[in-house]
Amino acid sequence: MSYTVTVVFGGDREYEFALHDAEVASTTKDQARSWLAREFEDLECTPSNPMGKVLVLDMILNVAKYGGEGRFEQGGEWAKKFAVVTAAALDRPAVRVDVASFIVG
Questions:
Q1: Do residues 86 and 5 touch, judged by C-beta distance below 8 A?
Q2: pLDDT level of residue 52 (50, 70, 90 thresholds)
Q3: Cβ of 99: how many Cβ atoms within 10 Å?
Q4: What is the mean pLDDT of the chain?
Q5: Whole-model pTM?
Q6: What is the DSSP letter of 15?
Q7: 66, 57 contact by CB (below 8 A)
Q8: Would you say 36 and 90 are in contact if contact means Cβ atoms under 8 Å apart?
Q9: Comparing C-alpha atoms, which of 56, 65, 64 is closest to residue 81?
Q10: Angle between helix 77-90 and 56-67 (nearest 10)
Q11: Average of per-residue pLDDT across 43-65
């Protein structure tokens, strides 16, 4: 199975990452969540939930937001890693991370 992760920053500013099964399969859900949690902390993201509990969808959205559009535009290692861990964490063949609307679909 192949995976596609699209990160959207509004309008026509979309960045698509096509991933092979082997890339995603080499990352467990726990490893994906750990990477997202580290980035969430390193980027000093603000939890969306006032109770302080951070869900994986919140981590994905906030890491994309605080990581910044520039990283996705460049398409470098960080953006590729984000795409791999997002696909691994959600285990869906197509994921759309809409940062502007704060929705994962």
A1: yes
A2: low
A3: 23
A4: 93
A5: 0.92
A6: E
A7: no
A8: no
A9: 64
A10: 170
A11: 85
- Region of 71 please: left (phi>0), alpha (psi -120 to 50) or beta: alpha
How far is residue 52's CA from residue 38's CA, in Å, rounded to a whole number? 16
What are 5-21's pLDDT values in tens digits?
999 999 889 999 999 99
- Yes or no: say if 61 and 99 are a contact pair by the CB < 8 Å rule: yes
Residue type at 66 in one-letter notation: Y
Pull the structure tokens for residue 14.
Answer: 């979309």
Query: Measured between alpha carbons, how far is 70 from 66 in angstroms, rounded to an integer?
Result: 11
Which is nearest to 43 in space by CA: 5, 82, 77? 82
Amino acid at 53: K
